[in-house]
């Protein structure tokens, strides 16, 4: 199955996962289908309909549209959906079951009514991404939001072809982002020219994969079901396990033993990350391989809400020979930049502050009002001037793009989760045999030459150093002679 997160295609299709973009930071994930699969979707003459605050949207108007299209709301025919009771629904269900049995078990698909566009309301249909999924996913645990996981994936060097361990699947937010970061192909694909060929173990190692572990059984089942629904089950391998006790080795289908995931990136979202660190070493015990890739360095990140957790994790990392230990706290802020139009000159326009910009402008307006009052009581008319001022405001029409005052402020509502991120690197193992192999491989490409001619700059520098050292030695000899003569 091709994942809509990775290869969505040019247009929407039946049974695709789509994201309805309602407004900024608000999207609604839906499965596009025209046939009702549950009681909640029944009752519409247009088929399955998604209702939002911006109107009703039959899926028949969305399927086949290019990604990013604007979808207009429709006038839907609810039929008896609004007033039918429970007994009526059960009676119709028994009648439908009787008709199905009479037709030999075959159910004829209902004829859908063409949707009629409404006068207002629209949404945009977007392909699913880890960012949109993070803002709309069902929360089972605290979510790792986009500002955090984007920085984490960058620091642990997750890239196409990486093999990443995640401990603590949770709601699956980081899992989707990690799957996209390591994706460089589907491991279950066969070579197009040879459909009968089986992929070798070496070919399987070339594809990026995510190995996610979850202690809670219900959360594990839901994450595994989501990966299958989203077409990521061949990239993400979900395992139900207590990593504190059992570690990160994988069950081998071909043998009763365990096999290593050969990971080169690790992310631990655990209450006590230091208890899982003993399983993340390069030392191999009897018949127990290391979970890390022996041919590359491994980067790790731990996600801890409390500073005490970060301190214990750092102590454990140093105890297990991790290097470049660093703690980071991501304080992501989003700046709202806009222009404020304040003053009487913008009066009558939308989105402005129609008050005096300063004292002088307020006094000028008061004088203008007093002058109009005096003119009215004196019997003189200034209709011509008033008409000209109204016409000037109408001619202005739009706010000037470079007018007003440019201001900025920090947005208050921002979805994020404060935590301390601890990063470290474990270098690859390097033995004497590796050193000898590297020396034999590269020594023939390195030319070692002696008596290399020196540049004029280097010769002048050495001459200055010799003169300076000679002056120091002469001064020392002179001081010694003066000391001897003074003593005599």
TrEMBL record:
Enzyme class: transferase
GO CC term (a single one): tRNA (m1A) methyltransferase complex
Basic and acidic residues compositional bias, start-end: 459-479
Subcellular location per the Swiss-Prot or TrEMBL entry: Nucleus
EC number, as in UniProt: 2.1.1.220
UniProt KW keywords: Methyltransferase, Nucleus, S-adenosyl-L-methionine, Transferase, tRNA processing
GO molecular function: tRNA (adenine(58)-N1)-methyltransferase activity
Matching Pfam families: GCD14
Limits of the tRNA (adenine(58)-N(1))-methyltransferase catalytic subunit TRM61 C-terminal domain: 121-182, 207-425
InterPro entries: SAM-dependent_MTases_sf, TRM61_C, tRNA_MeTrfase_Gcd14
Region (Disordered): 75-105, 439-488
One of the GO BP terms on file: tRNA methylation
Primary residence: nucleus
Entries under Gene3D superfamilies matching the protein: 3.10.330.20, Vaccinia Virus protein VP39 (3.40.50.150)
Protein's name in the database: tRNA (adenine(58)-N(1))-methyltransferase catalytic subunit TRM61
Organism, scientific name: Rhinocladiella mackenziei CBS 650.93
